[in-house]
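Need DUF3054 domain-containing protein's 3D structure for a figure. Predict it.
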Amino acid sequence: MKKLVPFAVDVVLVVVFCMLGRNSHGESVLAGLGRTFWPFGTGLLLGWVIAVAVASGREGASAAKRFDARAAWPTGVIIWVSTLVGGMLLRGVSGQGTAFSFILVATGFLGLFLVGWRAALRFIR
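Structure prediction for DUF3054 domain-containing protein:
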């Protein structure tokens, strides 16, 4: 159960990112949240899969032993980049906008959200 907490934190933060974006454009926050969330949620899930695969590939150790979901590097960075790139690609192919300014804002917010809490946790420890 403890290992799922970082994943849940990431999901909540991506939902908050999507809600903030919808609100900033004067859109109904809850009505279209699923449409806004699914590309980034899919990218997030893919990032987690990649992060676990990277951890399991190091030194032949099993993923369960090597994977640290709370590490800013490489876990947080992998999850951030995958969420961003996957989200933008899926938004593009589904006809949702990917304006350059949106990519810049998403890069900053997702980086702050997905890597930031991990870095803060390490700093506190």
